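Sequence in, structure out. Go.
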Amino acid sequence: MEMIIDFPEGLRVDARFGDQTVKTDQPVTGGGNGSAPTPFALFLSSIGTCAGIYVLGFCKQRGLATDNIRIIQRLQSNPMTGLINNVDLEIQVPPEFPEKYYDALVRSANQCAVKKHLEMPPQFNVYTQITE
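Output:
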């Protein structure tokens, strides 16, 4: 997969791949226009939304309603480094949701590809290339 990262204006940085464009910006307080999430906020949201795709798929396969299901993502940072050291994903279900599926919901959320890549991160190769 190839993504093209562009700098369209101001502090915006966009990623294009296929027919999609993911837009990012910096907040007004950081010199941007606040027109889109920051790259880091987008990264963090990919954890919960990825888990959500797996939970949604699990429920759809079993004909379970998802109207009142949601995931609350909570982040804790290490005060020494400022880096996130704990991510909690709380899957909230309505009272009528079958209890027999609680553990399976957790297992499905744990299948998230973003989570798996964080657990086994790829190697990064960053370099400069002259264009013509």
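Check: The mean pLDDT is 96. DSSP finds three helices and five strands in the chain.
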